[in-house]
# Entry
Amino acid sequence: MNTIPTHVALIMDGNGRWGKKRGLTRSEGHYAGTKAMEEIIDASTEQGVKILTLYAFSTENWKRPKDEVNYLMSLPIKFFNQKLPEFMRRNIKILISGDIEGLPKKTKKAVEKAMEKTRNNTGLIVNFALNYSSRSEILQAIYRILIDAKKNEISMDDLNEETFEKYLYTRGLPDPDIVIRTGGEKRVSNFLMWQSSESRLCFVDELFPDFSKELYIKAIKDQADDAITWEECAG
Ligand code: FPP
# Structure
């Protein structure tokens, strides 16, 4: 039996606390988180995961101090600038789930370029949830359905789960098999609420920068083991 999940979703929590614990800034924690994220991307290709969705910035995160928000918005620019050639070599496809229009101009440009460049790649899909909120995602879906209904492009009879999913940011992707959250908190935090209705939930105590490749592999392998409970999955 293949024990590797097709779609892994990850809430990368604990960067700020990790920085503080070391007398560093929260942004330095996010930098360390980006390094951990690179390891998780590597592990996902090695293990044969097909889709990795990473919660990189929620709509709630705009409320953080300006410096931190600016830093978080600069990360995709530096990251894609540096990593795109490698992603092309490794056949990795980048997707974004979230309100791209609400991003600063340079960040928007960087993520659009990453999506465009990797569009035809057929390997691991790395789907960044950026400026993402599950409630906003559902609302914008309803809004666009109403617009299409006005144009007679969809009718009430057509509306079902399958058609609804076509209006979500994650259109075309299968639901996650497992949602992992690092950093010790046992909450969903407005992440993939529609898509994770059948997903296994896995809460890990390690702060995200300490979430090693080994812990990640253990979590995704254990998810197929029906004998354990979700609380024990990375145990
Ligand atoms: C939550 O930790 C984490 C974030 C808000 C950002 C996560 C982003 C990355 C790991 C890198 C993203 C990189 C790219 C290229 C998109 P927190 O700061 O809320 O942790 P805390 O609970 O300790 O405060």
User: Anything to note?
Assistant: The beta strands are 7-11, 51-58, 93-97, 125-132, 178-181, 200-203.
